[in-house]
Amino acid sequence: MPNKWSSKSAASHFFHEIFYVLIKIGGRHAAYALLFFVVIFYAVLPSTRRKSYPYLKRRFPEAGFWAKQYHVFMLAWTFGKVLLDRSILGITGKIDILSSREDQALCKELYSKGKGLIVVSAHAGCWQSAMSSFDFIEGDKYAIYRRTEEDVDKQAYEHGKIKQAVNFINPSGYAGGAVEILCALEKNGVICTMGDREFGPQKTSVRLPFLGADIRVPASVYRIAAFYGTPVIIIFFPFKGAGKFDSVIADHFFIKDKGSGMENYKDSARRFIKAFENFCKEYPYQYFNFYDIWNID
Amino acid sequence: MMQTTLDEVKTVLKKNLSLEGIDINSLGEDSPLFEGLGLDSLDAIELVIILRKNYDIVIENMKEGREVFKTVGTLRKYIEENRKK
């Protein structure tokens, strides 16, 4: 079972370039057509199945052999389309964001409090495209994002067609990026972080059940929100078909400052997990997690 | 400028950070904070919060943060020069 998380891309730089060229020449449908066959190839690889099972076996505990193969294919197929759409956004600048006016108004209202904004999402749906086109929230935006040299797939803005909408804070950098996060909030910035996966030391997280078994859920961001009085929004970006994604605010709240212990912020982390479980129920093939987050002991 | 002693800083660190296995009395001006005390991202958050809450000091940027949190001594000096309470 894969225990160590890696951002290594499944395909090489060369194969990514083939898709980029195909998008430029043939457009989205040509790229999707090639993707279909690539996904069939990947879906039968034992390594793909092994990496997909930790999530799929909890999301579909009753699935038999053939159902499992179908779920692996659907997860890889959706993931492939989401990645392609991110490239298409970067190359052509085209994507439809279906965010509701109510959600946009809520973001503006919370941001107007002058305490910055903490946006908590997950490695699900079109989160990377969303970060690249996150223009309905005002203020300087910072995404906590760890990327290694093995991750050769380009971010949308790296294709040159769209501007880089967010600044990246590396959680593997100095002091885990904590100083940069706090500096950004002091300047009324917007921090976008992932609430589903812990990258820092274990003491920055709390233990909570997710899809029937415990995982470590990041909690330090809620500590920061509590101290600064920063509003938190839990938002997901479900893929809604070719070139379309939605932005759905699942929850929002302020947190009372209860001091430094992470256990003091377990309720906030639980609210995230509850919202994310609902997302996974509604969009079962959009949680792109390929390592065993349940293997924590 | 309000004087800030090494003992005061050490007391604040001991009170607010989880310094397991560290003899706080052995710390000097030159003791590195992150490598020496084994502080991590969570401790960095608490350090910034301590500065804000106890001394009304705001770290302006990452570069400044790196300098301030280099050693116990740089932290003490920064507090002394910038504290508002």
Q: What strand order characterises the main sheet of chain A?
A: 4-3-5-2-8-10
- Under the CATH scheme, the architecture of chain B is Orthogonal Bundle
Oligomer: heterodimer
Count of alpha/pi helices of chain A: 8
Beta-strand percent range of chain B? under 5%
Shape of chain B: globular
Low-confidence stretches of chain B: none
Can you tell me about this structure?
The complex is a heterodimer of chains A (297) and B (85). Chain A is an alpha/beta fold. The relative contact order of chain A is 0.17. The longest helix of chain A is centred in the N-terminal third of the chain and has 32 residues, at 13-44. The model of chain A has no long low-confidence stretch (mean pLDDT 88). In chain A, helix 1 (13-44) runs antiparallel to helix 3 and helix 2 crosses helix 3 (65-92). In chain A, the strands form three sheets. A six-stranded mixed beta sheet of chain A has the order 4-3-5-2-8-10. In chain A, strands 1-9 form a two-stranded parallel sheet. In chain A, strands 6-7 form a two-stranded antiparallel ribbon. Chain A is 42% helix and 15% strand. Chain A has helices at 13-44, 46-59, 65-92, 101-111, 127-132, 178-186, 220-228, 266-282, and strands spanning 96-97, 117-121, 141-144, 167-169, 190-194, 205-210, 213-218, 232-236, 244-245, 248-253. With 85 residues, chain B is mainly alpha-helical. Chain B has a single domain (6-18, 29-82), classed as Non-ribosomal Peptide Synthetase Peptidyl Carrier Protein, Chain A (Orthogonal Bundle). Helix content of chain B is 52%, strand content 0%. Chain B contains four helices and no strands. Chain B has helices spanning 6-16, 41-55, 62-68, 72-82. Chain B is globular, with a radius of gyration of 12 Å. At the A-B interface, helix 6 and helix 7 of A face helix 2 and helix 3 of B.
